[in-house]
Amino acid sequence: MENVTIMDHPLIKHKISRLRDETTGTNEFRALVEEIAMLMGYEALSDLPTEEVEVKTPIETCKTPVIAGRKLAVVPILRAGLGMVSGITALVPTAKIGHIGLYRDEVTHEPHEYYCKLPDPISERLIVVTDPMLATGGSGVEAVDFIKQHGGKNIKFLCIIAAPEGVKRFHETHPDVQLYVGCLDRELNKDAYICPGLGDAGDRIFGTK
Ligand code: PRP
Ligand code: URA
């Protein structure tokens, strides 16, 4: 599928296996989410434009590349997407951070918005949306809808685990958005949880139930 990248790296695979383990505690879970986001961010940002600047080394003056052009905005989907932000800002410390608050109705599984604050103007930025889980795809699709309504154009979406149903819905609705998936799981269960998945990402990151 064009614009859909499934990660294939032993470090990401290993860390996702640790995430899945129900005995992995909150501290380790949080650290793993951050590390996976950093590894995925490294891949997703591999097409950032660079420009040559002049630098004086202790030996001589040379031309050498630095990141140029579009500025970055990281937009986590609250709550669970927050856990990925520090992994991306470790790579690009100057990134601005927006927030979109969505929760899934437990019965209908439909997303509901409760917060939206994005860097202004968003149209000139490369926008990296983060959410560890893409299940039905409803939350991801709605978050990108909001960003586009606010003028966002150049959007990448990073999720750690996705269900095939979510990838299909997301890609059909937003084929222009580059989707990066840490691992593509088997299916959704009747409660719209990803199988085998890792359970409720927000609860495991924040230690709530
Ligand atoms: C989870 C997850 C995604 C959403 C995925 O959030 O972090 O945002 O569900 O499901 P979907 O693809 O079917 O929309 P949740 O609504 O549980 O909120 P939380 O992050 O506050 O725990
Ligand atoms: N949200 C989660 O946190 N986990 C799932 O499996 C599905 C949605």
TrEMBL record:
Co-factor requirement: Mg(2+)
E.C. code: 2.4.2.9
Catalytic reaction annotation: UMP + diphosphate = 5-phospho-alpha-D-ribose 1-diphosphate + uracil
Keywords assigned: Allosteric enzyme, Glycosyltransferase, GTP-binding, Magnesium, Nucleotide-binding, Transferase
The name this protein goes by in its record: Uracil phosphoribosyltransferase
Coiled coil: none
PANTHER family assigned: ADENINE PHOSPHORIBOSYLTRANSFERASE, URACIL PHOSPHORIBOSYLTRANSFERASE, CHLOROPLASTIC
Signal peptide stretch: none
Free-text comment on the cofactor: Binds 1 Mg(2+) ion per subunit. The magnesium is bound as Mg-PRPP.
Gene (name only): upp
Residues involved in 5-phospho-alpha-D-ribose 1-diphosphate binding: 79, 104, 131-139, 200
SUPFAM superfamilies listed in its UniProt record: PRTase-like
